[in-house]
Amino acid sequence: MNEATTPVGEPAPMGAAPTTGLAGGETTAPYAKRLRPGIYRRHHYLAVVVFVVATAVLAPMFAESRSTQFLVNLWLVYSITGIGFYWVFGLAGRFAFCQTFMMALGGYMGAWVAQSSLGGGFLVQVALGVVLSAGVATAVGLLVRRAQAFYFAIATIAVAEMGRVFFSKAEWFTGMNGTRTGIPPIRLFGRDYIAESEVFWIFLGGLALVLLLAAVIERSPLRRDAVAARDNALVAAVAGVPTGRAQLTLFVLGSAMGGLSGALMGPWTGTTGDTSFGIELAIGIFLMLLLGGIGSMWGPVVGAAFYVAVPDLLSGFDKYATIVYGALLLVTIILMPEGIVGGLGRLRLRLEGRWRRMRPKGAVDAVG
Amino acid sequence: MLSADGIEVHFGAVRAVDGVSLEVGDGEIVGLVGPNGSGKTTFLNAVCGVVPARGRLEVAGHPVRLGAPRAAARAGIGRVFQAPQTFEALSCIENVLLASADPRARGLLGATVLRPLMWSREQRRWLEAHEALALVGLEGATATPAHMLTYGERRLLDVARAIVSAPRVLLLDEPSAGLNDSETAALGDLLTRVHEEREVPILVIEHKIDFLDRLCDRVVVLDVGRVIASGPPDEVWRDERVMSAYLGATRAEG
Ligand SMILES: Nc1ncnc2c1ncn2[C@@H]1O[C@H](COP(=O)(O)OP(=O)(O)OP(=O)(O)O)[C@@H](O)[C@H]1O
Ligand SMILES: [Mg+2]
Prior knowledge:
By secondary structure, chain A is an all-alpha fold. In chain A, 68% of the residues lie in helices and 3% in strands.
């Protein structure tokens, strides 16, 4: 977690704080660097690069059959929506039940654009899917911005249900019986990406961008504000934190990632239908987060891997899949209440013996 | 500096604060006392916008909207709650950074396209936060996760968070609760130091009489939601209404 506490008894840097002038930024830097909060000491970008390179090298080696390649791609798109849900639920603490609705919205929008006279390339389809889900999320978020915890959950369930009704009625948008078929495959820069092994590169690129976005959010005041709003909105507001804005931002951004993954799935599978975004997936996204760990941007990535892999490993025992999920979840909650990623992080701290050393030194003798 | 006029807070039929008018001048430390349930905490809640209230509130001559915590924070009202309110998922310095008065590059734009601006604002905020932590004696705990602090340290962290934005007035709710005598004395020193170094007037709720005598220029006494006395501590303690209010409360409790 944190690499070191600020040494006690260092020359006090306070006096050096300039208050005005552009040059101030430069003079503060060497002092400020020592004071930066632990979150900025973590190697988010390096982790993203390592992850993307490792996946690019290992996944094609490991995924030999077409069906395994399909699962790898599914893992990548689920990771995207999972990271979005991590922002909404993990960081902003918003209990939203409309992530799959956002996926459907993005998916239908992409398909509608692709099959309308508008045409538009793959990037345009995806972008419009993202924009639509972000727009709807903004409207929903503003409408129910005062709703806390439980009421927000109910409101988002209502939105998702209304969406379902809309999807079944608006066949001009969603296709016959709410299913669009024959969506043209991904075509980017004059090249088609049809085979699973080709789509893989598009999805990996998409996930890489989303991970990068996740990394910059981790390393920003927005994260801190959202966490404070999540843990105690009242005290945060008294401290002056723009709680509503932080939570709305992450809700919209997370929903947009739902839209993104939905829009990616259409041209990949050729169809977009409400059934691919049903209640099972809605619960699945929760599972991914809880299993992988709600306290880290890597949680949903790890959780999505399990979510995708478990049914496959159990093929032939399909009817036990639910039980295995349940058991897996129970075991995780008991052994690693912070999920797999959280548990590993704690283990690392233990091994490095940092846990004890992080106790403040000079402070213990002060009041209390 | 702080000027509250006819503040009223109702909880259903209960008038928890019933027309309280109170001033905290520049350079003053004012004690707010009264029997249990007299409305002291509720008054502070009204001032920092946590409960819906009626009346008029001004900070440094500017009116402050009631019932809006962020408006109160922006007007320069810093608040320390009775029970420490730390954000355990964050480190100490992050706890303090939350209250930074600088709103720039704090949202999505700052996190993404305006990163250089965000970075330079952040560095300045770290320095401010570190100064505040140093003032309360927590400079060694900058990177410590807040959940590892002791009860007393958490209270200090709350004080640091309340002063980092250079507030115009500081409100404290029973800061000595749960501390022993020597800790209380240290806290008194700390508040004096904060008061002098930051030139911030303080309104403090307290039950410990000698703590008040040492710290306060003036005390205001509340009883059932009204101000019944106000003045220098030694005069107020001799006031008949104050004595009977406390006596009545003691009798009712016993
Ligand atoms: N949220 C609330 N809902 C209903 N009644 C409340 C609420 N908060 C406070 N009260 C009532 O308002 C009155 C004043 O309470 P308050 O907490 O302000 O007293 P206090 O002076 O701070 O007391 P203490 O010394 O015990 O802290 C009490 O009668 C209390 O029961
Ligand atoms: Mg109280």
